[in-house]
Structure formats: C-alpha cells, structure tokens
Write a structure and sequence with these properties.
Number of strands: 6
CATH topology of the largest domain: Rossmann fold
Shape: globular
Oligomer: single chain
Structural class: alpha/beta
Length: 305
C-alpha cells in the first residue's frame, strides 16, 4: 500500500512538472493566443503523445481559449499499424485527421541504401503538414521536439554545420503562412519516457529511420548523456546558455559592426569584459574539477525546466 501511494505521489509530481514546464514555454515564447487552433502533429511516438496529453490538460484550465486537432501522417511504411492512432484518438474524444501519403517510397527511391533518410523525410513531411494545416484552418502547428532534441541539434550545428543555432521554440514558415511551436522546449526526454510508461501509450516505432544506428545525432546524444553522468549541472548550464546569448562577444559581423568600434564608441550591453575574471565561471570550473558541481549548474539564466 505504501509503495502504491509513493508511486502515485511521484506520478502526480511528474504530471504537474510537465504541465508547469509546458505552460512556462507557452508563456515565455508567446506560443498560443486566444482563439488559436492548434494542430498537434502526432507521430505515434512517446513525445507527441505526451505533448497532446499535456495540451489537453492545459486547455481545460488555460486563461485563453484554444482548440486542438491531432494530425497523423501515415507515410505508408511497411507494417505501419494504421488502426492504432484512430482508435486511440477516438477513445479520447479528440478531433483528429489521418493523412495518407506515400512519402516512404519516395525516400527509399531517392536516398541510396545506407544513406541518411531523415533530412528528405522531414522536408516531405513538412510540406504535407503545412498543406493540411491550411485545410484545417490551424493557426499553430505544434511539434513534439523536447529540450534534449534542441540541445542535440545545437551541437550538430556546432560540430558539423559551423553555426550556432538550434530548433527555435517558435518560428514562422518561409512563406509566412504558418507558425510552428515546440511546447516541450523545457521538457527533458527522460520525463516524457516516464510519462509514456505511466499512461501506457500505444507506441508506434519509426521503421524508416530506426535502423540507422550510427547517425551523428545519436552519437551527440550519447555524448550529452555521458556528460550528464560525469559532470552534473553541465547540461543545465549549456541549455541556459542558449537563452543567454551575448552577440557582441561573438564573431558574427552581421550581429556586431566591428568596423564601427573605436575610441569613443558606446560600450556593449555587457560592458568591457576583455580583462575581467568571471567569478561565477571560475568557481564553476573549480567545482567541476573537484567533482562537486552544484546540481543546477552555473547560475547564468533562469532555469526553463
């Protein structure tokens, strides 16, 4: 009995944390406004199931009115259980639409055997979902990318793309007709995995890309997991840094007019730090070297999750 009470207590704590984190992300990035129609892209994976459930929960208590419609793209992968999502969504009483389009055959035909399928698959999927959003009158398109996805994308761009960027929590499509949001921006993947177990979601694996074990993204995720184990607080610090950018202290000439900097120039927002010692950074390095970094990492910015 005591174990059951403890398990229920932990489950409630997890639900509340996910609601809080998603609510904070929606508020911080102005993701949903009164009257919005939010199209939740449901893949059949744990992340999109969790996203839909949390949005349904917030919908009932949110200070703004918004509607939800779940959309799944059936890409005609061999063995895809086409009946699972319609049955699940009908049982929950959620408005939904299943879109059937054979992008699987296109990807397999175009990409050589052993090649990385994700990029082309993503572009094809995006085009279909944008079209469907227009047909449904959706004003927001919600994707299930979480905090770990955003961090992995940051390092992929850093290591292989030569740029400092990640998945933004909110963006407009190139033609300006659609707004894409990522309400799970502050949510850890491990919490979504626990949430999926608690709710017993009927998970549908992606067989199209699931066999590509050596993708760079997987290697980056392994690196981040290793850092999490060896250096508690480092991941929190990196995530906070993505929301605490100092453009004047980088090398991008599009963000900072270095030619205009001279004697008599106004100081930058962070001031003259050329010879300063950053006490917080120095202390964090000392703590990490000693193996006693605080659990929340370097206190650079407000913790989003």
């Amino acid at each position: 009995m005591a174990d059951a009470r403890k398990a229920e207590f932990e489950a409630n704590k997890l639900r509340k944390r996910l609601r809080r984190q998603v609510g904070e992300a929606i508020q911080d990035f102005a993701m949903i406004a009164d009257g919005d129609r939010v199209m939740v892209c449901l893949s059949g994976g744990k992340d999109s199931y969790g996203l839909l459930d949390v949005l349904l929960s917030l919908q009932a208590a949110a200070p703004v009115r918004f509607s939800l419609v779940a959309v799944n793209l059936d890409q005609k992968q061999p063995g895809f259980p086409a009946d699972v999502l319609p049955a699940y969504l009908a049982a929950k009483g959620v408005e939904f639409r299943i879109v059937e389009q054979d992008t699987y055959s296109v990807v397999k035909r175009v990409i050589p055997e052993g090649g990385t399928l994700c990029s082309l698959c993503s572009r094809l999927r995006r085009g279909v979902l944008y079209r469907v959003a227009g047909e449904l009158g959706a004003t927001r398109i919600a994707l299930g990318h979480h905090r770990d996805d955003m961090m992995a994308t940051f390092f992929l761009n850093l290591f292989f793309g030569g740029s400092l960027k990640t998945m933004p929590p909110k963006l407009a499509s190139d033609d300006g007709r659609h707004v894409v949001i990522r309400p799970l921006a502050y949510v850890r993947e491990r919490d979504l995995a626990r949430f999926a177990d608690l709710n017993g979601y009927p998970i549908i694996p992606c067989n199209l890309c699931g066999s590509q074990e050596h993708l760079q993204r997987r290697q980056v995720r392994q690196m981040l997991d290793d850092w999490e184990r060896r250096f508690p607080g480092r991941i929190e610090s990196i995530f906070n840094a993505m929301g605490n950018v100092i453009p004047t202290h980088l090398l991008d000439r599009r963000l900072n007019d270095f030619a205009a900097v001279g004697r008599g120039s106004a100081p930058g927002a962070e001031g003259d730090l050329a010879f300063d010692v950053d006490a917080a950074l120095e202390r964090a390095v000392e703590l990490e070297a000693a193996g006693i970094l605080p659990a929340r990492g370097i206190p650079i910015a407000r913790d989003g999750g």
